[in-house]
Amino acid sequence: MRGAAGRRRRPDTVAGHALTSRECHTGTRPRLRARIAALHTRLDRTIETACFGEPLDLRRLLTIHHAALGVIVPALEQAGAARLFPGWDGCSRLSALEADMVELCGDSPRRVSIERLFPSEQEVWGALYALEGSRLGNQVLLRRMAEHGNDLVQRAARFLAYRSEDAVAWPCLVARLEALDYRGDDFEAMAHGAERVFGVYLMAAQRHLGPKCR
Ligand code: HEM
Q1: Which of 7, 28, 115, 197 could form a Cys-Cys staple with 177, CB 3.0–4.6 A?
Q2: Which CATH code for domain 38-207?
């Protein structure tokens, strides 16, 4: 972990551009959001191509989530995410996802071996931002599925709906990120943590592009 002493100061960058001093005073969440925007759009499009149609290919959507979360959650657990952010429920959310997959596919998916994806605290915070933020997208998907009266919502929505009534975790996380107020190299490390989550998701989504499996 990088300590306060000996921290090198470097201008924050978004998409490779050094931020102006006014932009540097922007809060952590807007800076992170700007940093992941292009990746989010790319991932969103890839998942849309792989899974969205009539009906939504929920099995494939959950398979993509599991291929990514089966790597990211154990890596975050090993990196001490629950110590940094008490109450973090990544492991039980992964279990909910696996229960949905048993419901839809009939068997429990394999988890892959743990990789050391997030070696510093800054990267863990960035990864938590990406992972917890993805729950906002899940709310959108759930509403879409409910509007289409898809009966799978009743059977296999443990993961997508996981603690969706719990409005506390996201504002708490955002408040922690703002309080940390990482700048320079610390912000870069945090942004890399978030980008790594998107990288794992993109690889998982691309692996599952192809003919729809219903
Ligand atoms: C097809 C799948 C997805 C859709 C349709 C989607 C859609 C959305 C939407 C609509 C929001 C804004 C919600 C709001 O402000 O109330 C959002 C936020 C967010 N999503 Fe996604 N998302 C998807 C997948 C993901 C995934 C897999 C990740 C992470 C790897 C992710 C990361 C984020 C983050 C970090 C935010 C919060 C951005 C902020 O700070 O405001 N999303 N998503």
Answers
A1: 28
A2: 1.20.910.10
CB 170, CB 132: distance < 8 Å: yes
Is 69 near ligand 1, meaning CB less than 6 Å away? no
129 C-alpha to ligand 1 centroid (Å): 10
pTM higher than the cut 0.90? no
Task: Give the bridge partners for 44, in sequence order.
Answer: none
Domain boundaries, the chain: 38-207
Core vs surface per residue 186-204: b (16+ CB within 10 A) or e:
bbbbbbbbbbbbbebbbeb
* Cα–ligand 1 centroid distance for 176 (angstroms): 19
Q: Is 133 in the pocket of ligand 1 (CB under 6 A)?
A: yes
**pLDDT tens-digit series, residues 91-116:** 999 999 999 999 887 777 777 777 79
Q: Give the C-alpha separation, 212 to 183, whole Å.
A: 44
Report d(CA 131, CA 125) in Å as an integer. Answer: 10
Residue 14 has φ and ψ, to the nearest 5°, of -130, 125
Confidence (pLDDT) at 125: 98
Cα diameter, the chain? 57
pLDDT grade for 153, boundaries at 50, 70 and 90: low
Could you tell me which of 125, 29, 127 has the C-alpha nearest to residue 73?
A: 127
Amino acid identity for residue 168 in this structure: V
